[in-house]
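Q: Sequence in, structure out?
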Amino acid sequence: MRRETVHGIDLPRGAPAALDMARSIDRRTVIDRAAAIVVRVGGMGIIASILAILIFIVVEVWPLVSGAHVSARSGVQVDEAMLALAVDPYKSMVASLDRDGFVRVRSLDSGALSQERAVAPEGATSLVGGHSDPDGRFLAALDSAGSIEVIPVEWTVDFAAAERVVAARIGAPSVFELPDRRLTLPFAARISSVDDTQTVVAMADDGSLVQFRRAREVNEFTGEAVESVTQSSSVAPPGVDRLLLDDELKNLYGAGAGGRIYRWRTMPRLAAEPEVTRVDGEVTALTLLLGGRALVVGLEDGGIQVWFRTTSEDAADRLTLIRKFPPHTAPVRHLVSSRRDKGFVAVDDEGGVGLYHSTSERVLWRGNAGSGAAAAVAFAPKADGILVARDRELSRIDVDNPHPDVSWWSLFAPVWYEGYDQPEYVWQSSSGTDDFEPKYSLTPLLIGTLKGTFYALLIAIPLGVFAAMYVSQFMHPTLRNVIKPTVEIMAALPSVVLGFLAGLWLAPRVEEAFPALLLMLVAFPAVVIASGWMWERLPASWRHRVPTGSEALVFAVTLSLAAAVCLALSEPFEAAAFGGNFRYWLRDTIGLPYDQRNAIIVGLAMGFAVIPIIFAISEDAFSNVPRNLVSGSLALGANRWQTVSRVVLPTASPGIFSAVMIGFGRAVGETMIVLMATGNTPIQDWNPFNGFRTLSANIAVEIPEAPQFGTLYRVLFLAALLLFAVTFAVNTAAELVRQRLRERYARL
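A: Exactly. Output:
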C-alpha cells in the first residue's frame, strides 16, 4: 500500500483519518495564529490606552508650569499728563485723572475721548497728586488749593445692541478740606465695599496727619439718609512721604525716611502713636495685596519685599518680612495689586515692569513698557492687563496668566501663608471669601497616601503572606478547599461597604475598646506560642486523632478565647494603665490627639481589603513550587518547617514580591475606604491616631467642585499624574527585583 506524509504524519494514501487530521491541524494552526494576533493586538491596545491616559494627564497639567503670556500693544496718545487711572473690567475704557483738573474717559482701542468732567474746585489751578482704587471704583485727587476730591466711577455694561458696550458714569466728587489749613502730599483714600464709607487720610501743612471719615446711614423705617463726617488727627513722624489704607479701613500704613514703615489704627479714630517697623533700605512704594493682610514694599535699590503680621514668641503681633523677589535695576516707584489673587505689578524708574505672585513666589514676567518714569499704573480688575501712563502716552500690556498661584515650590515645599506664624504644608483649595489665599500643597496628600498604605500593608502583608504559606503548605486539603475560596471571595466586597462599616461601626467600637487592642498585640503572639508548645506536649494518641493540617481549629479556639479575655479586661487595664481614659491620657501625657476616624481604622479596613489579593497571589506562588524540590528536601531529612522556610519560601519569593506590590498598588489607589474612614483631613502627621487625606480621595472630593481648566482642576490632574508616577516607579522597581529573584532561585 502506498503511503503519504500529511503534516509530518505517515499515513496510507487516501485514508479518511489522514484527511480529518490534516483539517484539524489546519484549524488548530489558524486558531493559534488568530489567538496570537488577538493577544498581540490586545496587549498593544492596553499599552496604547495607558500612554493615551498619560498624555491626556500631561496635557492637562502642562499649563501649570508655563509662565504668563504677555504682549504689548500700541500706546494711546493723550493731551495732558495723567496722575491716576481707572480701567473697566473688560479693558475697553479707561478713566484718567489729569493734571489740569479733569477726569477724562477714553477708549483703549482708539484713544477717542468719550467723556470729560472738571473736578478741581474753584480756586484750584491744577491737581498736584492723585491715585485710584485698585478695583477702578473711584479716583482721588489733591488740588493746588489744598483740598481732596474723591470721584466715584461706575462702569456700566450694555448688551442691547448684540455687542458689549461699556460706559462710565462719573459721580459728583466728595470734597474733604480743612478750614484753616491746607492738605498736602502724601494722602490716601478708600471707599468701603460694604457700606460705601469714605475714608481719607492726608498730611496737613502744619505736619499733622488728618483723617476724615464720611459715612451714610439710612433709616430702615423712613428711608431717610443721614450723612456724617468725623475727623481725627495725629502728629505725623518726620519724613513720611507715602500713605496707604487697607481694604477694611482699619489700618493706615506709611513709609518714611530711614527705611521705616508706620502703622496706625484708624478705628474708631486715628491712633496717636504708630507702630514702627524697620526696613533694610529706603521705601519708595507700598501696596496691600488682596485682602489687606500682606504689605508689598518697593525699595530704592530695586528690591521688592512682602511683609505681613505674625505672632512672635512674646505673643506680640507685628509685621514680619516673609519673602523677597529678585530686584529691579532701578528704584521701584509703583506697586499695584491684583483684585483676583495675591499677584501684583511693579514698575521702576527706568520703565521696567514686573509681574509677580506672592504665595507661589513666582516672577511671572519681566519686561519694559517704554522708557522713563511712569506717572500712573493700573492693573485691570480681572488681572488680564496693565496700563502704564508716562509722558502723555498710555501704554497697554495684555496679560494671559491663568495659573499664577502654583509653582513647584508651593506644591511640595513649606509656604508661609498669610495669617500663619511659620511656613507650613497646607492643602485648602477654597474658602468663604474672595480674598482667600489658595493653598495647594500636595505634600500632605502624598504623606497621607503613604501613611494609609503603610498601615494597611502593616496588617495585610504578614497576615496575607503567612496565611498563604500555612494554607498551601500545612493545612489539611479539606480545610484548604474551604478557606481559600472564602478568602478570595473577600476581594469581591465593595470598598464603599468596607468604608461605611469602618467609619460608622468599627471606629466607635475601636475607640471604646482600644486598650483591648493593645492587650491583643501582646496576648495573641503569647497565646499562639503557648498553644503550640502545649499541643506538642500532648500525648501522641490525642494529637493523632486530629487530622494533620487541622490544628488551625485549635488555634482559632484559643485566639477567640484570648480576644474575649482582652475585651473583658479592657476597662480594668485602661483604669490601671491610662488613668481611666486612654484618649485623655494620650493627649495629656504624650501630646497626641485621638480622632475617632484615624489611620488605625483605615489600616484595619483597607488591610481587610488588601489581604485577599496578597493571599491569593502568594498562595499560588507557594503552590506552584515544584513538588520535586519539596520531596527532595524532605527525603534529605529536613522537617516540614525547614523545607518551607529554606526551599519553598525562597523559590516562591518572586511571586510573593509581586503579590506585595499589587497589594501596594491597591492600597495607594484606594478611595472610598479612606474617604469614609479617615475624616478626610489633609494633615501631615505620621500619628496613627490622626486622620489624613490621600491623593485619590482628594481627587474624588474636589473634582466635582473644580471649575474646568481652573487652577484647582489642573492641580488635581497633577495629583493623578503623581499617583501614576509613584505606581509606575514602584512597579518598575518591583519587576526588576522580581526578575533578579527569579534568576537567583531558578537554579534550585
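Residues 434 and 612 are 48 Å apart (CA to CA).
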